Amino acid sequence: MIAIFDHTFTDTSVLLDGHSYIRCRFVRVRLVYGGGDFVLEQCAFDGTMLVPVGAAHRTLFQVAPLFGWSYSPPHERLPLR
Length: 81
Known about the structure:
The chain is mostly beta strands. Helices cover 12% and strands 38% of the residues. Strands 1-4-7 form a 3-stranded parallel β-sheet, with no helix packed on it. The N and C termini lie far apart (39 Å).
């Protein structure tokens, strides 16, 4: 697992799978999650969005309605211009 310490990510996409983020800050970031292991420890989030892909996307899409949750894929949430 790749460990990243004390870093601020701004206006970018960050892959969660296979990473350990310790004391990091995420500002307007898209956290991309494919279903693998990751660690977020003592992190701060401001305007951050979780974007499931691959297996994680398929799981959320199928399981969310069973709990009464709604889930729309990221491409359906893009702002209209």
